[in-house]
Amino acid sequence: MMQLAQLSPEERDFLRKPSTSDSVFLIALAKRLAAVLGVRMKQRVQVEIADGSVDADAGQQDRPYLHWDNILETMWLCGRLGGNISHGHYQSSAMSARLKRTLELALAETWLSHSTMDVPGAASLRVQTADQHVGLDVHFPATRLAMNHWARQIIHHVE
Question: The pTM is what?
């Protein structure tokens, strides 16, 4: 039996990059998140697709899973309440729930606008304001059907 050679680091990086259809969806998601977070946090926000890979295994459920750096909660709270982020880390379960809901709604709306795309395994995004930048990872369900079902449920709960 013939053995295959190990992949080089460059080959692994290439295989981890999103496909073109994934890129279209992720670029749209980044733009939507930047717009929504900017309005809600009352400041200019940029969201970019981050270099590097995210473990896609965490997304093997029937709904997306969002994971963010704790500082995003502080940025959210300070932006919503007009505070200063330099005074430390603030956390509020009510505000964290609102942040999660806002992120999920933006994800659902973007997905339903691009639902003919394949479901990416996971994506790593970087949220930037004038003085902070934090990571936001999104782990997607394995199937388009599961993603469509979840997105419709999220949108339905808002109406």
Answer: 0.78
